[in-house]
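Hi V.,

You were right to ask for the full record rather than a summary. Here it is.
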Amino acid sequence: MCGFAGFVGYSDFCTDKVESVASNMGDAIFHRGPDDFGNWRDDNAELMLIHRRLSILDLSVAGHQPMISSSGRFIIAFNGEIYNHLDLRDKVKNKNFKGHSDTEILLSLIETYGVVKALKQIVGMFAFVLWDRDEKNLYLVRDRIGEKPLYYGWQNNVFLFGSELKALKAHPTFYGEIDRSSIVMQLRNNCIPAPYSIYKGIKKLLPGTFLMLSMGANGFTEKELPKPQRYWSFAAVAENGVKNRIIKSESATIHELDHLLSQSVRDQMIADVPLGAFLSGGVDSSVVVALMQKQSPVPIKTFSIGFNERGYDEAIYAKKVASYLGTDHMELYVTAQQAMDVIHRLPRLYDEPFSDSSQIPTFLVAEMTRQHVKVALSGDGGDELFGGYNRYFKTHQWWGKINAIPKPIRRMISKGLLATPPRLWDKMGYAAPGLSSDVVAKLAGVLSVEDESSLYEHFTTHWDDPASVVIGGRERFTNISDPSIELGNTVEQMMILDGLTYLPDDILTKVDRAAMGVSLETRIPLLDHRVVEFSWKLPLNMKIRHGQGKWVLRQLLYQYVPKELIERPKMGFGVPIDSWLRGPLKDWAESLLDESRLRREGYFYPQPIRRKWEEHLTGRRNWQSHLWGVLMFQAWLEDQH
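Predicted structure:
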């Protein structure tokens, strides 16, 4: 796991400045690779490659990057892991390896088969830049699911690329004009989906694609970038899976999943440094830890954090699972102040506005884990692949009942629910457990939707009309999927959209930046593309049954952990932002949401934001999600000065 950056075009620089610029760009992403630094330049192409190394496999100098292939044709700067690199050693022509790093094997694979055929054979998480000296082609490549990031774009006739925006911003040609439509996307989604970024002209490479930039007779010149080419498609995998369902018995299906996940976990446990796992005590992380412990001769190290606030503490469940499995378990109970102290670090950590508030506990668990190990396996991906989110199994359950009510009556009920003071609903919740102002607000929103397909947008939207809040902003929906792809039912349509957007742009972004911010490598066994392809061949009833998701994953887990240790209401990995904004974070938020400040900066219309802020402070409504989106942009903007 590492970080890389680079640029093409330095005719405007003196020779000595090229090296200093490269050094500055590398220093900007020091946290992604504190163990080693290297750069490589080709003056004929005016190309500079920069690499920061976090040594995981082959800790020797043989793993130094940028790395040159044995023939001298290819040069690579690589971030990630190729989990099947040992199997690939037998497939390459050149076997005169200098070391045993996966990067060296990847280069040999590319020399043997070419870029595209090599990509189809590797299993892993990665982003890399590759220079082909013979063909004069520069490749930018991103892994299938989007675990590793890659930004790129032209700035003042210089082509910049790198693992994080801060590396690009360290280049003197970077001007970074804020894209107001990206602010709209952030308010709607909590993140800025690929291929967009917060800056005009700077893009994120889409998962499963590569960009090839060819050098012309006059070198690389600024022009419209070619369209990224796809070598693997999540949408196609989903469509093919639905058309070719696995027809097997339940026991055979569980056995096959056990085999696939065990193989994925085994491959991802290969490291030359200490390794452990995040453990929340939920289904996904418990499956990963159980399969790790099954294949380890010694207790594996597991990590969890807890909170003293009621309704936010999963550490007690993680401890029970760890005790049963016999892991070497460590936990840290975090005070509200410790969690809030993380907030001022978020703009620098995430590089662009990002407002999924679970970014706070994610960073805290990563920070604790890094004190003991250098690699941690994570259980992310189970919800998206095996139907774990409440919105999946609530869709049909709710819509069937709601649709029976005439639309005018639904609208009237919705308005009535919202008109009742939230504090009254919360008081009633003591007599009717589960009833709260938040639940009522969600129900009111569901009642207002027009059709079943609109439910996904409702469930995943934070600001309903964010363009009305952002001055000069426009709605912009990512063209992530062929609109002709129809999976036959709303639930699986929701799952594919999550796999294409929410998973890479929110979940995986959150984990990558939080972990790499403390130089911790994370690996995600559930996102092995072979597991992904298997999951989409499963009939929906293997995932969702009796109003509960992840059925097949649960049955697998019960072979290793008693059911009673796992079965409980699903909890989010969150913090009580709503009460913090009314209490200890009030002054901080008020400063960022000050009306005169909003007018002066000129990005938001103050009135709707101030109205929500005042309603939140009085307890009339809980607007934490809406406000957190604005606050994270404001905090990021302040950090730019």
